[in-house]
Amino acid sequence: DNVLPQSPTTMAASPGEKVTITCHASSSGIHMNWHQQKSGTSPKLWIYDTSKLASGVPDRFSGSGSGTSYSLTINTMETEDAATYYCQQCCSTPHMYTFGAGTKLELK
Amino acid sequence: EVKLVESGGGLVQPGRSLKLSCAASGFNFNDYWMAWVRQAPGKGLEWIGEINQDSSTINYTPSLKETFTISRDNAQNILFLQTSKLGSEDTAVYYCARAHSGYIDYWGQGVMVTVSS
Known about the structure:
heterodimer; A: mainly beta; seven-stranded mixed sheet; four-stranded antiparallel sheet; B: seven-stranded mixed sheet; 11 strands; 54% strand
């Protein structure tokens, strides 16, 4: 089944550094969503409808994109941002949700 | 506060079946699509399927359609995932989730299912 390509697969960033994670959609023109998952915990909705921050998400995060290319950006990396980020899209034919392979972001 | 609490997991022998439950609270359960997602150890997220408010529409990932059945009880605010014969590849954390306008907005804490003899 489809897994959306994400890049990079893993990366490390220093505090204060800018971070960009990209995801390639399987269908054009459908909003992209992002979920954050920290080790041993369940995922959390992080960004929805391509660019809207979920409740409680710091404004150093942003989402953008169109067509089949989307990105999550952290303006200035902070310690608490170390996590795995998954992109997620719905609902082309067949009607189903598809997740990205995940990007593991570590603190340098 | 939205809460989704899964139960029913554990160790199951290959070829056996299992029924997971998800108790929902803190929102009007009848108003939302609900979904199941799983995550094998060390792997990414895999969407299993979803069910609409009155159970008239149920969608599955094509490759998992023969293995899982999703249902719900709106009177009890419970979502279910019935499995058929499980294999070792079904070992995973299973998450209950609330679906909203094309994205998952709330996740349960997850329940571990280990398929092993």
